């Protein structure tokens, strides 16, 4: 019996070039709720960003944010993983030393940036859609360090990730969208966040379904009853997934008959 459905956003619900959630999803989420089926968004994005994207149903869904570092249900934080302050500061300094790279520090309610280029501010606020605080020294932020990210407009790859090998195994680099690399605490990912949400809702893992498209969705393997990969997604995820699809909303209609 399906009791929980979780979906990634970028590349999954929002396809290439799209910047809004398909409007047809919102009435479906309401119908799911009426039928006792929970919906959660499962993304690398921040909580405030996701609430704006899902505004028509913002209070009706759960949130797995920051690639699993923060889990929120009905405005209550039910799981939060933080990065040790000294380790986080060392990591952010290392990111700032990388050519053409910007740093992003995620707190619970806002993200913090120390921009090298003015355009990075506009990118975060207007393109990514984050609630963003500009600071002179990101290492001096007193908020909890939820997630730390590297942004490189030209793209990130395994070679760049290797530059941060000294931070393993405490911090694990996760490549999300092509320009971003997220650093999370060890044993903190979308899979562990799904476990926390299922436990809070008293739902068996076998009664959950998840949708994703990229390597940062791989941790969902073994933490959800059925995993769907987007048919044009990352080959590693497709290899591990139970099924593929090209349209999440269409697939949900087929599965749920609502």
Main features:
258 residues; 8-stranded mixed sheet; 6-stranded mixed sheet; single chain; 8 helices; globular; alpha/beta
What does this structure look like?
- The two termini are 15 Å apart.
- This protein has 258 residues and is of the alpha/beta class.
- Strand 7 (111-113), helix 4 and strand 8 (132-134) form a beta-alpha-beta unit.
- It has helices at residues 25-34, 47-53, 85-97, 118-128, 158-161, 190-201, 235-240, 248-256; strands at 4-7, 38-42, 62-65, 70-73, 76-80, 102-106, 111-113, 132-134, 147-151, 171-175, 180-185, 208-212, 226-230, 243-245.
- The strands form 2 sheets. The protein has an 8-stranded mixed sheet, sandwiched between helices. Strands 8-7-6-9-11-10 form a 6-stranded mixed sheet, with helices on both faces.
- It is globular, with a radius of gyration of 18 Å.
- The protein has 8 helices and 14 strands.
What is the multimeric organization of the chains shown? single chain
Radius of gyration: 18 Å
Beta-strand percent range: 15-25%
Query: Would you report the number of β strands?
Result: 14
- List the strand order in the largest sheet: 5-4-3-2-1-12-13-14
SSE succession = EHEHEEEHEEHEEHEEHEEHEH
What is the general shape?
globular
Could you tell me how far the N terminus lies from the C terminus, measured between alpha carbons in angstroms? 15 Å
Average pLDDT works out at 94
Q: So how many helices?
A: 8
Query: Structural class of the secondary structure composition?
Result: alpha/beta
């Amino acid at each position: 019996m399906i009791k929980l459905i979780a979906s990634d956003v970028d590349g999954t619900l929002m396809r290439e070039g799209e910047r809004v959630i398909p409007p047809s999803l919102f009435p479906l989420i309401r119908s799911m709720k009426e039928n006792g089926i929970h919906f959660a968004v499962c993304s690398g994005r921040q909580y405030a960003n996701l609430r704006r994207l899902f505004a028509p149903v913002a209070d009706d869904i759960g949130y797995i944010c920051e690639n699993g570092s923060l889990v929120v249900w009905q405005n209550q934080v039910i799981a939060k993983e933080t990065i040790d302050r000294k380790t986080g500061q060392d990591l952010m300094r290392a990111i700032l030393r990388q050519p053409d790279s910007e740093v992003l520090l995620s707190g619970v309610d806002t993200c913090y940036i120390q921009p090298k280029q003015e355009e990075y501010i506009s990118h975060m606020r207007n393109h990514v859609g984050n609630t963003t605080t500009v600071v002179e020294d990101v290492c001096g932020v007193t908020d909890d360090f939820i997630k730390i990210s590297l942004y490189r407009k030209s793209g990130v790859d395994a070679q760049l990730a290797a530059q941060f090998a000294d931070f393993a195994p405490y911090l694990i680099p996760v490549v999300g969208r092509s320009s971003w690399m997220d650093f999370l605490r060890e044993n903190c990912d979308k899979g562990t966040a799904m476990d926390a949400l299922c436990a809070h809702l008293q739902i068996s893992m076998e009664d959950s379904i998840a949708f994703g498209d990229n390597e940062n969705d791989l941790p969902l393997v073994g933490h959800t009853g059925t995993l769907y990969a987007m048919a044009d997604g990352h080959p590693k995820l497709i290899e591990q997934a139970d099924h593929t699809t090209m349209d999440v909303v269409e697939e949900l209609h087929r599965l749920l008959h609502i």
